[in-house]
């Protein structure tokens, strides 16, 4: 398992369960707390190269188009914010992920456009994992810089305090 822990983060509530145990028990392979939009100027050709990969590998994408596509069948830029993510190393070490990453690496966008890990991880999850293997960890209160998520059910988090 992999849990990305950035510096300068806040956990607003006590974590009431072991997320690794939950993910294993529920057969989840990727988890997130925040979804947001990418600055499209940094990923101008990411979708073009992703579509070429889908075609080359003859992938049947398991997610509905509306989950990641916007107007005109283009990638919407919505991604799972990777400043908080938990994932199975099996996913990141899989042949499918390696092929996708290598395809993108050959395209050069990591260097010339600043493709970041968040949209790449999101698209990889949507290309390679069925939706039921991705978890939205709504109950974990988390924040980093100006982005944060506060659970709707605050029974276990009665003293939610935002950082100053």
How much helix, percentage-wise, in residues? 25-40%
Tell me the total number of β-strands. Answer: 9
Structural class: alpha+beta
Low-pLDDT parts are none
Major sheet details = 4 strands, mixed
Q: What gap, in angstroms, lies between the N and C termini?
A: 32 Å
Instruction: Give the strand order of the largest sheet, numbering strands 1, 2, ... along the chain.
Output: 1-6-3-7
Order of helices and strands: EEHEEHEEHHHHEEE
What best-fitting shape do the alpha-carbon axes yield? Answer: globular
As a whole number of angstroms, the C-alpha radius of gyration is 17 Å
Percent strand: 15-25%
Mean pLDDT: 85
Describe this structure in words.
The protein is α+β, with helices and mostly antiparallel strands and 164 residues long. 32% of the residues lie in helices and 16% in strands. It contains 6 helices and 9 strands; from the N terminus they run ββαββαββααααβββ. The protein has helices spanning 19-25, 46-57, 89-92, 95-107, 109-112, 117-128, and strands at residues 2-3, 9-11, 30-32, 35-37, 78-80, 85-87, 134-136, 142-144, 147-149. The strands form 3 sheets. A 4-stranded mixed β-sheet has the order 1-6-3-7. A 3-stranded antiparallel β-sheet has the order 2-8-9, with no helix packed on it. The chain has a two-stranded antiparallel ribbon with strand order 4-5. β8 (142-144) and β9 (147-149) form a beta hairpin. α2 packs across α4. The longest helix has 13 residues, at 95-107. The model has no long low-confidence stretch (mean pLDDT 85).
């Amino acid at each position: 398992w992999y849990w990305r822990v950035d510096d300068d983060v806040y956990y607003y509530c006590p974590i009431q369960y072991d997320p690794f145990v939950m993910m294993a028990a529920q057969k989840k392979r990727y988890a997130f707390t925040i979804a947001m939009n990418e600055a499209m100027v940094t990923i101008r050709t990411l979708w073009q190269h992703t579509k070429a990969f889908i075609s080359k590998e003859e992938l049947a994408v398991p997610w509905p188009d509306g989950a990641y596509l916007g107007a005109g069948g283009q990638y919407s830029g919505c991604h799972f914010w990777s400043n908080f993510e938990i994932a199975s190393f099996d996913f990141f070490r899989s042949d499918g992920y390696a092929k996708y990453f290598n395809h993108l690496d050959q395209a050069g966008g990591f260097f010339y456009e600043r493709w970041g890990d968040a949209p790449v991880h999101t698209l990889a999850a949507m290309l390679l994992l069925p939706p039921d293997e991705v978890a939205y960890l709504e109950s974990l209160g988390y924040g980093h810089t100006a982005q944060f998520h506060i659970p709707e059910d605050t029974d276990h988090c009665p003293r939610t305090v935002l950082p100053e």
